[in-house]
Predict the structure.
Amino acid sequence: MEEKVLFAFGLTLFAGLSTGIGSALAIFTKTTNTKFLSWALGFSGGVMIYVSFTEILGKSRDILTGIYGNVAGNWYAVISFFGGVFIIALIDFLIPSFENPHEAHRVEELVTDNKSNNRNKGVNGLLRMGIFIALAIAIHNFPEGIATFTAGITDTQIAIPIAVAIAIHNIPEGIAISIPIYYATGRKRKAFILSFLSGLAEPLGALIGYSLLYVFVGDTMLGILFGSVAGVMVFISVDELLPTAREYGYHHYAIFGLIFGMVIMAISLLLFL
């Protein structure tokens, strides 16, 4: 059990700290590979949607129908799924939307003339915006940490692709944090550290998830948690990943990535039958 916990926590840490990859890209590269980002975000959405509906929700249904019977168990699984959707949607609703933390940003936004006056305009506002985005993304990352950890501690087969998908999804978030902070301060280190720290919300979510599993480690709780995780991941995919992928300007790349992610996930699951 201890090895499973460490494995699940390691996956969650990897997924969360990939915001630092986005920050590094924003700070140390000159251009954004928007085609790749569109494809990669679509790929992540495909992996998460497919595994949510075919595996995670199915596990929730199997557990709950085994305890409560076919009719009641299916109802509980569906309620759990939409409960997860409601929770992540409520988080979105409660966070003020004057600056969308999932808006597509490009590295080119950092390429400015340091001698111009642009950096001096609204510096405090930009800094506040960057910190706010970091906090907003940290709040969004919290349930993702619970989702990754839950998958890691129960099913290694689906945990790794979920962690990779969430890690890819976190890269543009790192860019979104770094841009206003670097604009405001001119300090690469500060932009990177704040981006890096926002990703720590996912391993924090993992710790909370472990506490929940440890205290309420019954089959009913596990079934409900699986259903909720499926709802969270589907909402993230349709509300964040796919719209952001399209914002980069390559709609077909996003769709091709989506389909390819589903195909890869389907094949990987079939290989372990």
About this structure: Residues 95 and 136 are 7 Å apart (CA to CA). Residues 110-121 have pLDDT under 50 and may be disordered. Residues 2-270 form one domain. The first helix runs from residue 2 to 16.
